[in-house]
Write a structure and sequence with these properties.
Length: 329
């Protein structure tokens, strides 16, 4: 198994390498791939020294699988070139997510849709993954009608420059800015660029992606995405109206039995999910589970996960693991 990590020098790429090692991902050869400016860079990984190669060199090597985290434009140009040489691409950018010819996959939910013919597979948006993983069993049982989500997203979702901005501002250092405004001691109600409808790209991902993953457009979604000064982990306040009524204890039991989900909901002891607890973990944490008393059949939940792991690197690698386990590559 020849594996290429495309975008290996980036923030998510680094986490991908950590997750590959932690999960003992099976490969005989590892290619670390990045842009031309990083070509030749030496990376120490798992007791070996690797030299970073360029994209064309990686295509020439004809890897079995390529794990992409190199941005949308790079994926649009290069993922098809990898696919043409027989490589299966799992792409972490937004480039292919809403392409009707490509699968958008959370393995625990719709991995069974994958076939050998799927040569470019899209990894969902980080905020979408944690939300849908928690919502899928509830939708199956109670059927969602309307979903209202407000996110509180880490600066790590923007990238290294944003993490550095927060760090600089905490230390009183004037440096490069990833945002239009200070993020330290602030909350910025803008994740990604604004679209013509007044929503950001991030918000519209939360509107569109759940319907594709669940293969169901019968429910409606509205979203507000906010950037907050945490260094890792996204949080979401989610309000779900169902067609059918529920019991809170049944909801908690259902979520507790869901693979990849951990319920942290003990109000007597002030136990609920927080980014600080989700950091460097692969699970999605759910708490503050309570009935919305303002309208019938409606539930409130608080969902937290490490956006660089289950929200990006881990889900990508879990897709690759599913492909291998089911002999699809």
């Amino acid at each position: 198994m020849k594996v290429a990590v495309v975008g290996a020098t980036g923030m998510v790429g680094n986490v991908m390498l950590d997750v590959l090692k932690e999960r003992n991902f099976p490969f005989s050869e590892l290619l670390l791939v990045a842009s031309e400016r990083s070509k030749g860079k030496q990376i120490e990984y798992n007791g070996k020294t690797y030299s970073v190669i360029g994209l064309q060199d990686a295509v020439n090597e004809k890897p079995d699988i390529a794990l992409f985290s190199a941005g949308g434009s790079t994926s649009e140009e290069w993922a098809p070139k990898f696919a043409e040489v027989g490589c299966t691409v799992v792409d972490n950018s937004s480039a292919w997510r809403m392409d009707p010819t490509k699968k958008l996959v959370i393995p625990e939910i719709n991995g069974n849709e994958l076939t050998k013919d799927d040569k470019i597979i899209a990894n969902p948006n980080c905020s979408t993954i944690q939300m849908v993983l928690a919502l899928a069993p509830l939708h199956k049982t109670y059927k969602m009608k309307r979903l209202v989500v407000s996110t509180y997203q880490s600066v790590s979702g923007t990238g290294v420059k944003a993490v550095k901005q927060l760090d600089n501002e905490e230390k009183g250092i004037d440096g490069d800015k990833a945002y239009h405004y200070p993020i330290y001691r602030n909350a910025i109600p803008q994740c990604d660029i604004f679209l013509e409808n007044g929503y950001t790209k991030e918000e519209m991902k939360l509107v569109k992606e759940p319907k594709k993953i669940l293969s169901d457009d019968s429910f409606s979604v509205t979203a507000t995405a906010v950037r907050i000064p945490t260094a890792g982990g996204h949080s979401e306040a989610v309000n779900i109206q169902f067609e059918n009524d529920f019991k809170i204890q049944d909801v908690k039991e259902l979520l507790s039995k869901t693979p990849g989900v951990i319920v942290k909901d003990d109000l007597d002891n002030n136990i609920y999910p927080m980014p600080i607890h989700a950091h460097n973990k692969d699970e999605v944490f759910v708490g503050r589970i309570r009935r919305d008393e303002s309208q019938e059949n409606t539930l409130n939940m608080w969902i937290v996960a490490d956006n660089l792991r289950k929200g990006a690197a881990t889900n990508t690698i879990q897709i690759a693991e599913y492909l291998i386990k089911n002999k699809l590559i």
